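@here heads up, posting the sequence + SMILES for the zinc ion run so it's all in one place. Ping me if the SMILES looks off, I pulled it from an old spreadsheet.
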Amino acid sequence: MEQTLVEVVTGIFQLQLPMPDSRLSSVSSYLAKTDEGCLLVDCGWDCDEAFDALALQLGEVGVSFSDLRYIAVTHLHRDHYGLVGRLLPRTQAELVIHEVDRGQIEDIYVCRETFVQEMDHWLQINGVPEDDRREMWKANLQGISLDTIAMPHRQVRGGEHLCLGGFDFEVIWTPGHSPGHICLYERSRRVLISGDHVLPAITPHVSMHIQSVGNPLLDYLASLHVVEALPVDVVLPAHEHVFYDLPRRAEEIRKHHVVRKSEIASVLGGVERTAFQIAMVLPWSTLSVAWADLALPHQHSAISETLAHLKLMLVEGTVTNAVRDGVVWYSLVKNHRASAA
Ligand SMILES: [Zn+2]
Ligand SMILES: [Zn+2]
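bot reply: prediction finished. Complex structure tokens:
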């Protein structure tokens, strides 16, 4: 059989698992293969195509499900966690997830009605009109339930080590993209498995929404400092391609967020707006389309991403907000208006 998966670092293979009907064509899982068993990082979207691709690609390097000792999920998003419920019963593996993300499994994937109600309220207080909310609801409902969920055997906090056949992966807690996001760091090989925390071209989505913990963008930027301070030669991300210059990429992402905040300040000018109104007029260049042409789930993401910036700007003192008639309105703090004009 011809082997299609790539050994990206000696002993570590990159698996490409398809994500049908997604803007991203695939998610990359990583397999550390040793004589003592294997570690799999991330599992893919919950669909037959991903499950079959996983089984096939493991088979290409002579690995069966029963060889998996650890399954580490970098975060709870469906393209990383979705398939675990189907995979885990076929293995004797220990499932590893950060304790904060573990605490949200039922909220996201099981308590569907409550989640939808809370989401509607959250959209309402951020200025989304009723008709738009109803459509966003329907679109989001399709993406938030799983037939089978799995609970971790080991909840981690960061600092733990997953050791296997000469590999020593340290768990690094990197909240931001998800509150319980983790990276795995192999110090002796100077390798970072970065999940969705740092990607080579796409700026990782950081959002403020109903289940957010803390200040997501502030946390994200702090997490970026944590990983870029590590001696790293190779970064293995969950999307796009392997890359090497982590500090340069971290700096690009930081600059993107500085630009984004100034764009929000310009949109606000001397006017009071809701997060929805701001998101509608911001450029969404990565998607290269106007607001009206964004798919509903992407409009929802755009609002929550705008809110993550606004939350940081509140802490930094550049914007302020006020609640009127159950809706949150944002405005620039007086001495920042001149620079935004
Ligand atoms: Zn993600
Ligand atoms: Zn992802």
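MO: The longest helix spans residues 246-268.
MO: One more: Residues 75, 77, 177, 196 surround zinc ion (ligand 1) (CB under 6 Å).
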